[in-house]
Specification:
The protein is α+β, with helices and mostly antiparallel strands. The protein folds into 2 domains: 230 residues, 2-Layer Sandwich (Cytochrome Bc1 Complex, Chain A, domain 1), CATH 3.30.830.10; 202 residues, Cytochrome Bc1 Complex, Chain A, domain 1. The chain has 16 helices and 14 strands. The protein has an 8-stranded mixed β-sheet, sandwiched between helices. A 6-stranded mixed β-sheet has the order 11-12-10-13-9-14, sandwiched between helices. A hairpin with a 2-residue loop joins strand 1 and strand 2. The longest helix is centred in the N-terminal third of the chain and has 18 residues. It is globular. It starts with a strand and ends in an 8-residue tail after the last strand. The N terminus and C terminus are likely disordered.
């Protein structure tokens, strides 16, 4: 039994005692559901006199309207621009006076607020969080400065070939879907965004029924719950529009090579892959172990062995599943010279085909399992990490038991599971290949790999 019922809206969750006591990586978690739908998790962690608060808004960049890409991230950052009680400067001064640090941001599946300070200042910290989340004003002058900072960051990003190549790949893979744009938007979409857009989007995505909070630190769970109820359990009001529960994500068909011509670069960036898995994919743990062996395990991975160690084609290569609420990308990332790039891609494809046919060895399986089992406690060693992992289970509907079962599920992966997931989750014959660099002289060499699309990379992203 994992849960001990307390009442209709809360329960205590603690792991059963394992033979070595190893399941007690996380202290007991107290869970509450407020009347307005807000979720609260509290973990007492008394090692240091600090407290960490994480809050998620269960609407992320996938809710960005067409033409306003990046608006969710702007909205989350805009929460810190001012409220009915405090200006942006006063928020900053209040946090500084408490020695606290706060960030507000957004990813694909959620907006995040992260705050850390001394546990003795919890009342003041909670009041600040409540103020910025429920009473933001989005002042026009402060928004214009925020917008300029974002545009400056986007201009700088365009000079980072590695980052732009990754975004180009995902734009090709997810084109015409809610995942088909960068979470921070584009120059055009941010330039067109107004403070009225921010205020409108806030009303659509932020509501207590879409909020979940985790508080971890030197606190007492029931006292914290009462404070949260007092601050956040206000009238229900109108719930925001639901996020996209269903997204149609088409699979790539055949091999499509997209060459982004960037003259003058001595190296080129390669991103290749296809649709991957969601975070609640039934064989998620087997897929993690399978990918560790292929390209997620650093120098112990097959791709590193084949591409760097044996041939010296690159200094680094990796593969990963970027699992999200909906299936995210499976992506292989590397870099090399323009002349070697076609050969590198061919060797990658051959390595994947061989892996799909033969699976892993017992030694590879043991190494991958050892890594995940051994490193798992490191991901839970601080209040901030615990808060993040607890809210991950909430966001993706995994259940708190998934934290305590993680190591057992990794240990349960067998060689036949590796073979099955490699066969079902790796599709080298139906893949998108995005290459960015000085490729004018090598276009013909790519034609033997797949259908070639040449992009004159003026905007550094695929054209509409």
């Amino acid at each position: 039994m994992f849960t001990l019922k307390m009442d209709d809206s809360s329960y205590l969750f603690s792991a059963p005692q394992g033979p070595m006591g190893e399941n007690h990586v996380i202290p007991p978690v107290v869970h509450h559901r407020l009347q307005n739908g807000m979720i609260l998790y509290v973990v007492e962690h008394h090692k240091l006199p600090v407290v960490c608060l994480h809050m998620i808004i269960k609407n992320g960049a996938e809710t960005d309207p067409l033409g306003k890409e990046g608006i969710t991230k702007l909205t989350m950052e805009g929460l810190l621009l001012g409220t009915g009680k405090r200006s942006e400067e006063e928020i900053s001064l209040a946090l500084d006076s408490l020695g606290a640090v706060m960030v507000s941001e957004a990813g694909w599946d959620a907006g995040w607020i992260k705050l850390q300070g001394l546990s003795e200042d919890l009342d003041a910290l909670l009041e600040i969080v409540c103020d910025i989340v429920l009473q933001p004003t989005f002042p026009s002058d402060a928004f214009l400065l925020l917008k300029e900072r974002r545009l400056g960051a986007l201009r700088n990003k365009q000079q980072d070939l590695s980052q732009v190549a990754g975004e180009a790949f995902e734009s090709l893979l997810f084109k015409d879907t809610p995942y088909g744009h960068p979470p921070d938007g584009t120059m055009a979409s941010v330039e067109s965004s107004s403070v009225e857009d921010l205020r409108s989007h806030y009303s659509k995505i932020i509501h207590p029924s879409k909020m979940a909070m985790a508080i971890v630190g030197d606190v007492h769970a029931e006292e914290v719950a009462e404070k949260i109820r007092h601050l956040f359990e206000q009238g229900d009001g109108a719930a925001p529009e639901e996020g996209r529960e269903k997204i149609s994500l088409p699979e790539p068909s055949g091999r499509n090579v997209h060459l982004f011509l960037r003259p003058g670069f001595t190296q080129c960036q390669i991103r290749m892959g296809h649709l991957g898995i969601s975070r609640n994919y039934p064989s998620y743990h087997a897929a993690k172990v399978m990918n560790y062996i292929l390209g997620g395990g650093g120098f112990s991975s097959r791709l590193m062995e084949e591409i760097r160690v044996k041939r010296g084609y690159t200094y680094g290569i990796s593969s990963r599943f970027k699992a999200r609420k909906h299936p995210g990308p499976f992506i292989i990332s590397t870099f090399t010279t323009p002349e070697l790039a076609p050969e590198v891609v061919n060797r990658i494809l051959d390595t994947i085909e061989g892996y799909r046919e033969t699976g892993a060895t017992e030694e590879e399986l043991e190494a991958a399992q050892g890594f995940y089992v051994g490193s798992f406690p490191l991901g839970l060693e601080t209040p901030s990490k615990i808060a993040g992992r607890v809210l991950e289970t909430e966001l993706y509907g995994l259940g708190l038991s998934s934290l305590y079962e993680f190591k057992d599920r990794i240990r349960a992966v067998r060689l036949e599971h590796i073979l099955q997931t490699a066969s079902s989750c790796l599709r080298p014959r139906d893949t998108i290949i995005a290459v960015m660099g000085d490729l004018e002289k090598s276009i013909q060499a790519w034609e033997s790999i797949g259908t070639v699309h040449v992009v004159q990379d003026k905007e550094h992203l695929p054209a509409d």
